[in-house]
TrEMBL record:
It comes from the Eukaryota. This is GRF-type domain-containing protein. Pfam families: DUF7900. Residues 21-63 form the GRF-type domain. PANTHER family: ZINC ION-BINDING PROTEIN. Keywords: Metal-binding, Zinc, Zinc-finger. GO terms for molecular function: zinc ion binding. The lineage of its organism: Eukaryota, Viridiplantae, Streptophyta, Embryophyta, Tracheophyta.
Length: 132
């Protein structure tokens, strides 16, 4: 399998290698999410799972995680997924509150206007009663 060429970018800085895919574009960096390779970094074709996919793949991290490191990475991944789920649920709750608030704001205005009208009516009625 051809892993493409390497090039460098930057002037006067620490040079970062750019891995090129067989299609000539810079390979995209990504992280594994599988139980076998949690957070293990790799290069892949920019056109992955499209018609432009060259099938390019190369590990950045040569060694696989194992032992306590692998367990720690799996636990971290699980916590991240839990937090993502919590964030998604909170966003749904906020959206519902915002929607409810917008609906209630209209009702509140009607209630306040009705209350003010009632106060005026009571005030003027009491003035008329005193006048009698």
């Amino acid at each position: 399998m051809d892993f493409g060429g390497f090039s460098h970018k930057g002037k006067g800085k620490a040079k970062e290698s750019i891995v090129l895919c067989g299609c000539g574009l810079p390979a995209k960096k990504a992280q594994g999410l599988t139980d076998e390779n949690p957070f293990r970094r790799f290069y892949g074709c920019e056109g992955y799972k499209t018609l432009l996919d060259y099938g390019f793949f190369k590990w950045i991290d040569e060694g696989r995680p194992f032992g306590w490191q692998k367990r720690a990475l799996l636990e971290a991944r699980h916590k991240i997924w839990q937090k993502d789920h919590t964030i998604m649920e909170l966003k749904k709750t906020i959206a519902k509150f915002q929607s409810d608030w917008a609906e209630n704001a209209e009702f509140e205005e009607d209630i306040i206007n009705g209350f003010l009208k009632l106060c005026r009516d009571v005030f003027f009625s009491s003035k008329r009663v005193r006048a009698l």
